[in-house]
Amino acid sequence: MATLADYSEETRAEVKQVREIVASLHDQLLKWNLVVWTAGNVSQRLKTADLMVIKPSGLRYEYLTPASMVVCDLDGNVVDGAASPSSDTASHCYIYRHMPDVYGVVHTHSTYATAWAATGKNIPCALTMMGDEFGGEVPVGPFRLIGSEAIGEGVVETLKKYPKSPAVLMQNHGPFTIGKDAESAVKAAAMTEEVAHTVWAAQMLGGVIPIPQQDIDKLNDRYQNVYGQH
Amino acid sequence: MATLADYSEETRAEVKQVREIVASLHDQLLKWNLVVWTAGNVSQRLKTADLMVIKPSGLRYEYLTPASMVVCDLDGNVVDGAASPSSDTASHCYIYRHMPDVYGVVHTHSTYATAWAATGKNIPCALTMMGDEFGGEVPVGPFRLIGSEAIGEGVVETLKKYPKSPAVLMQNHGPFTIGKDAESAVKAAAMTEEVAHTVWAAQMLGGVIPIPQQDIDKLNDRYQNVYGQH
Amino acid sequence: MATLADYSEETRAEVKQVREIVASLHDQLLKWNLVVWTAGNVSQRLKTADLMVIKPSGLRYEYLTPASMVVCDLDGNVVDGAASPSSDTASHCYIYRHMPDVYGVVHTHSTYATAWAATGKNIPCALTMMGDEFGGEVPVGPFRLIGSEAIGEGVVETLKKYPKSPAVLMQNHGPFTIGKDAESAVKAAAMTEEVAHTVWAAQMLGGVIPIPQQDIDKLNDRYQNVYGQH
Amino acid sequence: MATLADYSEETRAEVKQVREIVASLHDQLLKWNLVVWTAGNVSQRLKTADLMVIKPSGLRYEYLTPASMVVCDLDGNVVDGAASPSSDTASHCYIYRHMPDVYGVVHTHSTYATAWAATGKNIPCALTMMGDEFGGEVPVGPFRLIGSEAIGEGVVETLKKYPKSPAVLMQNHGPFTIGKDAESAVKAAAMTEEVAHTVWAAQMLGGVIPIPQQDIDKLNDRYQNVYGQH
């Protein structure tokens, strides 16, 4: 098996930096109330080698440190780290192998996003911030058992059908989000829960006013292409 | 382009003070759960010059400091600041130019206020605190695309129809609130979310008992004119 | 007008202690999410004189200190304190004058309790903790305008009909709670919101199983008379 | 009556350690919003003697320390501690005496779990995390009065019918959870509230897609037997 010593100095320096980024982004999952106990995981793919840094399995949030993060190759083999990687590692790997522009993946069971996932209903696009971030509704993906890359397959298959959405709600399970780095994927996870909660509350009042598709497209185009600093 | 050096010493002193006020009021948006990630923005107009201080675009809340706030003129031209101003700057400017008594503007996507906005329904006046703060129902404003002053126009047009309300819920978007300074506008944003949540919960139980208009008027008159210290 | 100097040394010592208690109990209102911005107020009646200590009007929670609390007589005249007392002072006074066993009063606009208040419906007794704390349903009191002792009258009138309940939900307004001291009244305010939220959520699932009155009575008797240390 | 001095040095050392564990786990009840005021209690059974460590009755969370925890034998007699043990002590004892593999018990009134308990409806299994943790639906147990071991009997009777579930929702009362130690039982309490909230929200959208029993069994088997590090 490979170890970090088999990689370049540049890669070892990137690992050090990405361990810090990934560990600290787990605090954002807590801050925005996206996780309970040990649920949820963040990973980031490296730029300098086919490796990723991911949360260890089953460790409580108060014990997460840069050093406890696990480095894996994109087949899920551990390259560096004392603990086992998250039980969702195979799915993170599958996403990175099949979506070459993705460098960050996040999975949570955040409450309202997961509620939509349990009903099998896409979140309708009724908020300008959904036009901005998701370019339309937030899709539900297929039901898949945990523990193999089957979930990753379902995520990729669904996101290919909804190319503007950085989020998919895996049926009966919870949201996966992607981004150009781990921070973007965490932002998408926070926005997914927020729009899930807001549209849920609006549905309770008797239903939302949908936004016309042409306006959704204008919102998304401006946000993704013009609003550079977000 | 003008820079701060073109303004009086008095204005430069006011800018320094208002940068601190506006930066610290963003903490209140977090404290009262009105924002997620980088959403939400606060501005305050200056007393000594036609300038305002507003949040920079897309910066995470933990990185906001007085120095990162942006100073603009009332057409949105940056006069001082390293970052771009909030993407809602044009709307803040429009409000200040058309409502000369307003010196504070806040925009959020707070959950329950935005849920009402997604349904297009005004929040009915069923709470004495709504009589106090809003003088009646909280109105929904028109649907407008993001990025120009069209939103500001919709805000002003709606508030002119509801002159006692410091809040308008822009349809499919979220609340804008105004005040005699930024703190008053932040207070109105917090109250808007609170009454949106409370009346929403009451509606779920089968509907509210409305407050008669004459009692709403008495509440509002006492609160705005007698209860000086609020 | 009387000042603190007109009172005994013992009373001046009690005032000092009760200022600290009342100031610190306002932190509990925040901790249990019972208040937004400056809403909510706590008072405690003194044992050694017909005085009470109450929150000043309109001061943000981060600025509340023992020194900022206001000392009033039971007609609401300020005896010591730099700020005006809470705008609910007349109602606190009315309660103390008409319920001689009450030494603590709390008022909030906590979300779910206020939602029930907006519907005019008592909270049905469907939780053992309601049997314990409230001895039955939590009653709604009459609609009253703010600013006179009319609210206090409505509180007392309702609590006399529900002698086991330390809480009344004033219609379209929010909860008032009482206790043998301010801490007991704050506890009742926290429990009121908790049972309001829980029974609300249960109603959304299709309705609660009521607890038979004889079991409510057994719960209440044990809790109030046996479970001494609560 | 026995005192700690009657026990071995090994047991006295274990008591010291378990006092710290149990006190600190009460912070987790607060962190995950499972309790209000003094509600909720955690206990852990010792390995070296038929004793348990449990929260004192009626003490506010900010005053809980290892030293304030109470040591009881499994009939509820106090062996060490200045305060009375939790009023739920008899039920904790009953569970330990009748479920010899259980070394941790937690009781809360967490909002959404208690809402389901007030309706008498089991939480349907519609989430993969429910398959993992509960092996199916979360059951409601019988209505029982507080203060004797009757609640403990109801807990044990229900858990024997649902042997994969670490949680039971006592009707009109709230959840009890068990585990191989107090931390496992606290984890189960946090997960119970999370799935109660999520499935509740999904029901509001019109109902959940149930997970087929064979898939629930596969999820539970993998989680309990393969996923060692959780």
UniProtKB/TrEMBL annotation, chains A, B, C, D:
Keywords: Metal-binding, Zinc. The keyword ATP-binding does not apply. GO terms for cellular component: cytosol. It catalyses: L-ribulose 5-phosphate = D-xylulose 5-phosphate. The keyword Cell membrane does not apply. Residues 20-200 form the Class II aldolase/adducin N-terminal domain. PANTHER family: FUCULOSE PHOSPHATE ALDOLASE, L-RIBULOSE-5-PHOSPHATE 4-EPIMERASE SGBE. This is L-ribulose-5-phosphate 4-epimerase. It comes from Alloscardovia theropitheci.
